[in-house]
Amino acid sequence: MKNVVFRPEFKVPSRVLNWFPGHMRKAMRTMELESKKASLFLEVRDARIPRTSRNKEILTVLPPKMKRMILYNKVDLANEKRSLEIINNIHKEGSEKDIPWLHLSTKKNVNVNKLLKFITDNSTV
User: Are 47 and 72 in contact (CB under 8 A)?
Assistant: First the structure.
């Protein structure tokens, strides 16, 4: 067996590392321009990972005071009881407490009619 030599230190690269891929940056720039034409923004998150499927940079590109709703999709694939518990906690605290939200499953038609009603009531054509 060969002698293994470990490096004594880990040198951090001199340049700043960025995980944000170019196609996502381009989409954010496009969203900033296109959102000015919209009256309603629907943010879709994954009900299986409700906290980590949030893109924190979304609000930086939306016009101030834009109507929005957060949708937690694929609730049929999640532990529904536990996911709803987490989602309720998210919306009881912090900056998202006043934002309307729905959990839904387009496969099982859960809350789809509620979503359509929200869109109809809150969008201007």
Answer: yes
Domain residue limits at 68: 39-122
Q: Closest Cα partner for 65 from 93, 39, 28, 101?
A: 39
The CATH number of the domain where 110 resides is what? 3.40.50.300
Say if residues 83 and 109 touch (Cβ distance below 8 Å): no
3-state secondary structure (DSSP) of residue 9: coil
Alpha-carbon span 111 to 103, nearest angstrom:
7
> CA-CA distance, 87 to 101, in Å (whole number)?
9
What residues of the chain score a pLDDT lower than 50? Answer: none
Task: Tell me the sheet residues that pair with 101.
Answer: 70
Task: Say what the pLDDT of residue 48 is.
Answer: 94
One-letter amino acid at 11 equals K
pTM: 0.78
pLDDT at 3: 80
Distance separating alpha carbons of residues 105 and 120, to the nearest angstrom: 19
What pLDDT does residue 18 have?
65
